[in-house]
């Protein structure tokens, strides 16, 4: 297999994008091993989602690419160098 394991961090500053984000995550559910969402306290309108991924670099890149073009959404990923 050519799968990699990693983490994708998503920072959401535009809450109107949440439905689009959830739709994208649903489409790519096959590469998502786990998900944790944290609304930021103290009245800041920022939310953070961290996702553990297990998939090919193409599949993970498709996920992060679709998220990255959304306004008010920042995405970063870190993947294992080793393939599984």
From TrEMBL:
Pfam name, any one: TM1266-like
Domain of life of the native organism: Bacteria
NCBIfam families, sorted: hyd_TM1266
Name this polypeptide is given: Putative iron-only hydrogenase system regulator
Organism the protein comes from: Alkalibacter saccharofermentans DSM 14828
């Amino acid at each position: 297999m050519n799968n990699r394991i990693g983490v994708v961090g998503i920072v959401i500053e535009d809450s109107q994008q949440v439905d689009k984000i959830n739709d994208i995550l649903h489409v790519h559910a096959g590469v998502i091993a786990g998900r944790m969402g944290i609304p930021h306290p103290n009245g800041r309108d920022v939310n953070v989602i961290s996702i553990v991924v297990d998939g090919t670099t193409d599949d993970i890149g498709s996920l992060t690419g679709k998220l990255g073009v959304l306004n008010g959404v920042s995405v970063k990923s870190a993947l294992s160098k080793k393939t599984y």
